[in-house]
UniProtKB/TrEMBL annotation:
PROSITE patterns: HTH_ARAC_FAMILY_2
Keyword Transcription: yes
Top-level division of the source organism's lineage: Bacteria
Sequence ranges assigned to domain HTH araC/xylS-type in this UniProt record: 248-346
A GO term from the CC aspect: cytosol
Name by which UniProt lists this protein: AraC family transcriptional regulator
Length: 354
């Protein structure tokens, strides 16, 4: 069903983004489970400033990296489920507040496909009604890999946890859960948290229940508040789409140029048929800088190559557009406080890199 983790597209990890509030929820959960927050930030290359609610969004690769780190530092193989238990309106930004102020659970569910990009802009949620049941399914938009397990579980589990919270209902009432990934060895936490049938190696990641559940009234329904928060969600979504258009194009060009040479603003501007000044201005309007995007892509790809391939350090350096291995090593030390070789030994203890 799922492909090996080595099939992950490194470009996808930097093309899609997640809200800083979502990553903050994972950090809070990992800390509750015993992880050291400073260590998580340090090893993931994050700073506390990047998690400010008003800050720029972060690549989805950061979230996936944090899932792996959190599991390693806490020994909690169910970190996705435990994060799902912690979601609240603020976790989902304006979507969360707009959903909780809806009149019914059905109205709240219909908000997800429209505004899910506020949380993560690479996935796709479908809400379908058939055979007397409603089914909410989700696809990550990422190449299938084992490491998507925690992501799948926090998305589907988060829907259930948030739905229980805004509706004030905790019984399963005919619910059914499915995941694309294989069943883990221990199922106790699934039984405790979902309290309903859970199917693994399924065609979709989904939650389904009786159609009548859509009529369930919400505890904090407020028509005036809902209108206000949906308007806020629409504005925020417009900003993300506008920002993603230019920034995503620049990131895509950086990814393509890196194996050939160090990307330059002039080269990317020429390929986008704009002047350097115009490109710089547009990036600034979106809260981005070209040099920071190059560094971001290099940092994320360096982790991917060191953790998931057997490429030599020199080969990784060349793929990232460095003319010399020493330049890559110096940059890597600035990002993570250790050499690429030491990082690989720490994160791939069973590997035998060249």
């Amino acid at each position: 069903m799922d492909k090996p983790a080595t099939q992950t597209s490194p470009q996808a990890l930097t093309s899609y983004s997640v809200a800083a509030s979502y990553i903050a929820c994972l950090l809070d959960t990992a800390e509750q489970q015993g992880a050291d927050r400073d260590q998580l930030l340090r090893e993931s290359g994050l700073t506390a400033e990047q998690l400010d609610p008003g800050s720029a969004r972060l690549p989805v690769g950061v979230l996936l990296k944090l899932f792996v780190l959190a599991e390693r530092l806490t020994g909690d193989s169910m970190i996705g489920i435990h994060m799902a238990e912690n979601v609240r309106p603020g976790t989902f930004n304006a979507l969360g507040y707009a959903a909780m102020s809806c009149s019914t659970l059905g109205d709240a569910l219909c908000m997800i496909p429209r505004y899910e990009a506020l949380v993560y802009d690479g996935g796709r949620t479908k809400v379908e009604c058939r055979d007397g049941r409603v089914c909410v399914s989700w696809a990550s938009g990422l190449p299938e890999q084992h490491d998507l397990r925690a992501f799948n579980e926090v998305i589907v589990g988060g829907w259930l946890s948030f739905g229980r919270w805004i509706a004030g209902r905790h019984g399963h009432d005919g619910l059914a859960i499915s995941f694309r990934h294989q069943a883990p060895p221990q199922l106790d936490e699934y039984i405790r948290f979902f309290d309903c049938p859970v199917r693994f190696a399924a065609p979709t990641n989904s939650l389904s229940g009786p159609l009548q559940a859509l009529q369930m009234p919400l505890l904090q329904r407020d028509e005036e508040m809902h209108a206000l928060m949906e308007n806020h969600a629409q504005i925020a979504l417009g900003r993300i789409r506008e920002g993603r258009d230019v920034t995503a194009q620049v990131i895509a060009h950086i990814q393509r140029l890196l194996p050939v040479r160090a990307p330059a603003l002039s080269s990317v501007a020429a390929e986008l048929h704009v002047s350097e000044r115009t490109l710089r201005r547009r990036l600034q309007q979106e809260g981005a800088q070209f040099s920071e995007l190059v560094s971001q892509v290099r940092r994320q790809l360096s982790q991917h190559y060191l953790e998931r391939t057997t490429l030599s350090i020199l080969e990784v350096a060349l793929l990232l557009g460095y003319a010399e291995q020493s330049s890559f090593t110096a940059a890597f030390r600035q990002w993570f406080g250790q050499s690429p070789r030491d990082y690989r030994k720490q994160h791939r203890p069973a590997s035998t890199p060249r």
